[in-house]
Every structure is written in C-alpha cells, then in structure tokens.
Design a protein that fits this description.
The complex is a heterodimer of chains A (about 260) and B (about 325).
Chain A: E1 5-14, E2 17-27, E3 32-36, H1 43-51, E4 58-63, E5 66-67, H2 73-79, E6 80-83, H3 95-100, H4 114-126, H5 142-155, E7 160-164, H6 172-187, E8 191-195, H7 199-205, E9 208-213, E10 216-222, H8 231-236, E11 240-244, E12 250-254
Parallel strand pairs in A: 3-8, 3-9, 6-7, 7-8
Antiparallel strand pairs in A: 1-2, 1-4, 4-5, 9-10, 11-12
Chain B: H1 4-23, H2 34-38, H3 44-77, H4 89-102, E1 107-108, E2 111-112, H5 113-133, E3 134-135, E4 138-139, H6 141-165, H7 168-178, H8 187-206, H9 208-216, H10 218-224, H11 228-250, H12 256-267, H13 272-297, H14 305-324
Antiparallel strand pairs in B: 1-2, 3-4
Helix pairs in contact in B: 1-13, 3-8, 3-9, 3-11, 3-12, 3-13, 4-5, 4-6, 4-7, 4-11, 5-6, 5-11, 8-11, 8-13, 9-10, 12-13, 13-14
Classes of the chains: A alpha/beta (about 260), B mainly alpha (about 325).
C-alpha cells in the first residue's frame, strides 16, 4: 500500500548552489505536518516541488503512486491546492470571484456551474467571509485576505493542501484560528503541510514536524515526541529551550 | 458569479459597435446623400464605399485589436499600465514598417510591404524580449516588461535614425504614418485583418478564466491548475499578431489599449470574461469615433486618429497616475 504523498530523494539547487539534498519522506491523509527551518533553508522550494509547480532537479514526488510530472496541471490541481507566500493584495476582483478561482480545475466551461458556486459558498462560510463576498479583495485587511485565500484553497476540494507561511501578517487571534482550521481540515481527512516559523502554534496544532537543516531533512518526528528530540531546536536558534505546558505538552521558551 | 447585468454589457457593447459601423461612415466633411449611395451614383457611392466605410471598419477593428491586446497584457503582467507599447511590440512593428517605407518597397507577395515589415518587426521584438526574459524555462513578467521597455527605446531610436537618413518625400510619409492615422485601405487588406482579429480574439476570449488567474499571480494560477507555459505562449503570440496587424494598417496608435480596458475595469467589471469582449468592441468604437472627430474638427484638413486619441488619452493617463500613487 503506497502513501498518498511519497517524496523520494528530492534535490534542488539555485544557480549551482544546493538548497535541498536528497529529501525523502512519505505522508498520508489525516496528517497535519509543519515544515520548519531557518530563512533560506529551502522550505518554500520544497513546498513548490511537492505542489508540482517546480520540478525537482533529482528525485521524484509521487502522488497516489504516480510521478507528479506525469499529471496535467488540471488533474494535479484537483488533488493539490497550494497557497503561495506573499500574495498580492491589489487584486481587482471581488472576494467571491477570488474564491471561485479555486474551482478552475473542475470546469471547462466559460462559466462556473451551480455546483462550483455551492462549493465556494461552503468554503466562504467555513472561513467566515460570506458576509463580505461582494467586496473588492483589495479593500480587505490582512487577516481577511488570508481567510479568502484559504477559502479558495478549500473550494478546490483537494486531498492535499500546502500552505506557505499561512499565518504571516495575521494578529494573534487570526493565527490561532488559521491553525485550528488547518488542523480541522486534516482531521476531516486532508493531508495538510504548512511552513511556519511559529514553534508553539506548530506544537499546539500539528501531528508531525519536519525540520530542514543544511540542505537535509534533519528531523522528522510526531509532534507528541517533540521533547524527545531537543536537538532540532538548536538548528533554529541557540536561544530556545524545550519546556512543558501545565498539562504536559511540549512548549518552547524564548530566551 | 457572472450575472445577466454583466452579460448585458457585452450585448450593449456589440450594439454600440454595430451602430458605429452603420452611422460613422455617413459623417464627414462633405455630406453624402443616402439615395445617391443606394443608386450607386458618383461621387457619393465611391466616396462612401471606398473611403468612409473602409476607414470606419479599419478603425473599428484596429481599435478593438489594440484594446483587447492591452487588457490581455495587463492581465498577464499584473500591471495596469502594460500595453503593446510597454512591451515594445508596437515599436517593433513600427520599425519594421518604417524600414519598408525607407526602402520604397510597395508590395511583398501581393500584400502591402509594410504589413510584412510590421509582422517581422513585432515577431523579432517578441522573440528578443521573451528570450531575454526566459530564465531556467520560466518567463517572468517583470523581466518581460523591463526588456520590453529597453527594446521600445532601441526601436524608437532606429526609427529616428532612418527618418533622418532618408530625404524629403519618404521622410514626410514616414512622419505622417508615425502620427497614427486611420486611412482607407483595400478591402482585401481589411478582410485579411478581419480574419486575424476574429481568430485571435476567439482564442484569447475563450481563455478568459485563465487570464483571471494570471491577473492574481503566476504561482497562484499554477496552483489552481493553469498551464502557465501554454498560456504565456498563446498570450504573446496572439497579442503580437493583433498588434502587428493593427500597427501595419494604421501606424502606431497609443492609448486605446490603456484607456478602454481601464474604463471597463473600473466601471463595469475586472472579470476578463466581461472585460475582454467589451474591450474588443468598445476599443473599436473609441478609435472609429476618434477618427470621425479628426475628420470634422479642422475641415478641410484632417487630424490623425492617433493625435485625437493622444489628446484624450494623455490627460487621462496623467489623471490615472495622480490617482494611483
């Protein structure tokens, strides 16, 4: 039985300089994986490769046992939705138009179907943006932007969802809401992979953690075992200490 | 969702287009009698058919082609100031045509030589611009825009150089052409241009949802299932064919590709399914109207449509820049 996602020996380089070296891991439905590492560690590159929008230089990404390079763009997008980092905010479209873009891979017609609208409405309800569906995207706040983009990813109904720093620019409450949503999506059967720098948000919500260090996948462990592998903290910063919450869950202290 | 009000705008634009095609040929410095045209009596009939009608049709199609290309490039480059001008495609086409004027070439394989020149010029610029913007198999919008601006300056410099090298009569006709005027052309030329506009417009407009995705971002579009490579190739090929055709027949006319998509985007809808067909139709109406205005304001002399468009478009651009920054 093969995994939903199988990353095999993936390497990548930017103008001759190695960024990722022989990354291998497999993942399945229901997992909420956070991908961590210092700036420039190759997190976004790895996410783009897993999303199929950047080919790996060596190795392969298998989705449902089939090499991602053999999937057409539409086929792939029915299985994978990817929220890139640093999205533009001066988009001319309304909220509803942006969310409906998530349905692109499903329709060959010039117009969206009733079904497409239904999925979009459900996604907007879920992300609490139905009430401003007709507002121009550019007039929203940072937190509202992110909710709309997440709604578009949800309307895409994929088995695997990839998020590149989904909680940047969000206030504390929005960050918590964002991570709860990702965890809920995973519980409902999706495979969620998110890049983040917020260690405690990751510890509180994810099921598994991957840490990139010096081009390698240096650590790969279940979140509940985070305290058993304290070395990963030192790769992120020497000023971090592993601690515990009152109910015994791992918690990182900043010093 | 697209509602019937928005679809109504497409129908409204189509009606304006047809209305312009029917009404504008009757307007001009000398009055034409409806009865005499129907009776095919000279001089009314030849003036109407060979001068006014062909000229109106050319204005409608060239304006539509340039406005549609403007809306296409604006979506592809995510820059509301991108037009065939900023990508250098217009300047390339103009340089190609000017070379044929300077060499006194009249016809090439049965077609006006300036056509071939403009096509070659536009294609050469496109290949150069795309080539310099291509890195690791990926085309970047910003790099395209930057190399487009560079190519634009180079082509303009060559046009000035050629214009100062050739003398008197040819220099005058080059200057005249560079002003951008809608003149009567043969119906064969119109027919070929109509075929180019029809085919490329269909290809572009049927992909409207993909252009919407690209207007948000390249990675965004790729992650929603758009085939970026294919779309980039389709977009630049269709855009340069439309530009080259229009420029070869009218000379470099600016602003129509900027003003029309902007007005529609802000007043009607930014959705390319509405924006693109309306740009095509209303861009045509706009240029044909500018040409008619140019025919009327300085009788018996004529103001080129390009000049009328610049007099309207220039102040609009200044206002737009003030509002944007």
């Amino acid at each position: 039985m093969s995994s939903l996602l199988d990353v095999r020996d993936v390497s990548s380089a930017y103008s001759g300089h190695a960024v990722l070296d022989a990354i291998t891991f497999a993942a399945n439905s229901g997992e909420f994986i956070v991908l961590m590492g210092v700036n420039g560690a190759g997190k976004s590159t790895l996410l783009d490769i897993v999303a199929g929008i950047r080919p790996p230089e060596k190795g392969a990404v298998m989705l449902q046992g089939r090499d991602l390079r053999s999937w057409s763009a539409r086929e792939r997008s029915r299985q994978i939705s990817h929220l890139p980092q640093g999205n533009r905010q001066e988009v001319p479209f309304t909220v509803e138009q942006v969310v409906l873009m998530g349905r692109y891979a499903y329709a060959d017609q010039w117009f969206e179907s009733k079904e497409d609208l239904m999925y979009a409405e459900d996604a907007m309800k879920r992300m609490d943006c139905l009430q401003f569906r007709h507002r121009p995207f550019s007039t929203l706040s940072g937190g509202e932007h992110q909710r709309v983009l997440l709604a578009a990813c949800i309307a895409q109904c994929p088995g695997m969802m990839l998020f590149d720093e989904p909680s940047t620019y969000l206030d504390v409450h929005q960050q918590l809401q964002c991570f709860s949503t990702l965890a809920a999506l995973a519980r409902e059967g999706a495979l969620c992979i998110a890049v983040t720098h917020d260690l405690n948000l990751a510890l509180a919500h994810s099921t598994r953690m991957l840490v990139l260090n010096e081009e390698k996948l240096a650590a790969d462990f279940a979140t509940v075992d985070a305290a058993a592998h304290p070395e990963w903290l030192s790769w992120l910063s020497p000023r971090l200490r592993m601690h515990q919450t009152p109910d015994g869950k791992p918690w990182v202290l900043y010093q | 969702m697209i509602n019937s009000r928005l679809i109504g705008w497409i129908w409204g634009s189509a009606i304006a287009f047809v209305f312009a095609a029917i009404v504008l040929p009757w307007i001009g410095s000398g009055s034409i009698s409806f009865e005499r045209v129907l009776a095919k009596a000279s001089p009314d009939y030849p003036i109407f058919v060979e001068l006014r009608l062909s000229r109106t049709l050319l204005g409608l199609m060239a304006g539509g082609a340039l406005a549609l290309t403007g809306s296409l490039f604006q979506a592809m480059l995510r820059d509301s100031l991108a037009t065939p001008y900023t990508l250098g495609v217009s300047a390339g086409a103009a340089l190609g045509a000017v070379v044929t004027f300077a060499l006194d070439l009249e016809r090439l394989l049965g077609f006006p030589a300036s056509w071939g020149g403009a096509m070659l010029g536009a294609a050469a610029v496109l290949v150069t611009v795309a080539g310099s913007a291509l890195k690791g198999g990926q085309l970047s919008g910003v790099r395209l825009l930057l190399s487009g601006i560079a190519l634009n300056s180079i082509c303009s410099a060559f046009i000035l150089l050629i214009n100062s090298l050739v003398r008197d009569r040819r220099s005058f006709s080059i200057t005249q052409w560079l002003l951008g005027s809608v003149d009567s052309v043969s119906y064969t030329a119109l027919l070929v241009f109509a075929a180019v506009v029809t085919v490329t417009s269909i290809v572009i407009i049927t992909q409207a949802r993909s252009w919407n995705l690209l207007a948000v971002g390249e990675t965004w579009a790729g992650s929603r299932g758009a085939d970026l490579r294919r779309l980039t190739i389709i977009g630049y090929c269709c855009g340069s064919a439309l530009t080259a055709g229009a420029i070869a027949l009218t000379g470099p006319i600016g602003f129509v590709g900027l003003i029309v998509p902007h007005l529609i985007r802000s007043r009607i809808s930014p959705d390319n399914r509405i924006l693109m067909p309306c740009s095509l139709l209303l861009g045509g109406v706009m240029l044909a109207c500018c040409d008619t205005i140019g025919r009327l304001v300085m009788v018996p002399a004529e103001l080129p449509a390009g000049a009328v468009m610049a007099l309207i478009g220039g102040p609009y651009l200044v206002w737009l820049v003030r509002r944007r920054f």
